[in-house]
Amino acid sequence: MGTTLAELLDLARTGPRAFRARSPQPSTPQVFGGQFVAQALVAAGRDVPSDQGPHSLHAHFLEPGDPASVLDLMVEPVRGGVGRTVRRVSVRQHGRELVTVLASFAGVRPGLGHEAVEPGTSRLAHRGAPSRGVSAPDLRGGLAEASEETLSWVAALRAVLPLEVAFPEPPPRDAVVRGERPPPHQRVLVRAADPLPADPLVHAAALAYASDLLLLSTALLPHGMVMGDPRARAVSLDHTLWFHRAPRADDWLDHAMESEWAGDGRAVCHGRMRDPAGRLLATVAQEGTLRPRAG
Question: What's the pLDDT tens digit per position in 246-277?
């Protein structure tokens, strides 16, 4: 049995502001970007007042990580003030800095509020999200007519990541497999594959983990490519999250993604993550390398 998401986010303290983290088993060929972000958020959150929750996170991916080796996370105070705390986290392995993360935390404050209703992303609330314990066949949804290649791809995702993944609509990857060039947007439902502890920081970190899933692949769709295509190099450069509400990451998270621009060897992707009631939980942004490989 592989490592659960709760175990992945349970960091070992090795010093006053130092932690050690592991990768899941089985694992991906290199450390999943969402893992870096999630574990760094937990490390930063363990060094701030308990009445403050994360409200933003900015990560820069510098080098890939080896999932067979542990990661060391060093937390540095950047700013502390009334109602807001900022921490910088350096994720290191074999003496090299792999990722740097700046995380900001604050307590709940009164203020003006509004929320745009986005067509198509709140349908889960009207139809009802599948509850935990629903059998796998009931979660096929948009995969009902999917190709065997796409079904194998989904099975591989579920095998290497501690997440449950479902599609309310046919995944655009299936259109690429058929030789089409779908527009650069897609939607996925995701949640922790196993129960999480009640700690709100763990749930925020679990959302951060899931926020990286498929995001950069959105930019490949109009080019008729998928992640892993030998014709293109697609690598995440940075990742940003703004938290709007405290999430429950063992409930289904509805992540609607789009890529509005690619050029100059780069691509920008955005995502909006909502709860089963259709309320906006977090906004995601990511820039990545996107360029053809030399023949």
Answer: 999 999 999 999 999 999 999 999 999 999 88
Question: Domains in the chain, please, with CATH?
Answer: 5-108+121-292 (2.40.160.210)
**Among candidates 287, 216, 285, 273, which has minimal Cα distance to 245?**
273
pLDDT at 115 over 50: yes
**Active site includes 35?**
no
Q: Is 72 a catalytic residue?
A: no
User: Six-digit token pair at 126?
Assistant: 């009207």
Degrees (nearest 5) of the Cα angle 220, 222, 228?
Answer: 25
Cα gap 143→151, rounded to integer Å: 7
Active site residue 25: no
**Which residue in 250, 271, 252, 256 sits closest to 205, CA to CA?**
250
Q: Three-state secondary structure along the chain? A: CCCCHHHHCCCEEEECCEEEECCCCCCCCCCCHHHHHHHHHHHHHCCCCCCCEEEEEEEEECCCCCCCCCEEEEEEEEEEECCEEEEEEEEEECCEEEEEEEEEEECCCCCCCCCCCCCCCCHHHHHCCCCCCCCHHHHCHHHCCCCHHHHHHHHHHHHHCCEEEECCCCCHHHHHHCCCCCCCEEEEEEEECCCCCCCHHHHHHHHHHHHCCCCHHHHHHHHCCCCCCCCEEEEEEEEEEEECCCCCCCCCEEEEEEEEEEECCEEEEEEEEECCCCCEEEEEEEEEEEEECCC
Least confident stretch, 106-110, 201-205, 271-275: 106-110
Note the pLDDT tens digit of each residue in 211-243.
999 999 999 999 999 988 888 889 999 999 999
- Which residue among the candidates 212, 250, 254, 275 is catalytic per the annotation? 212
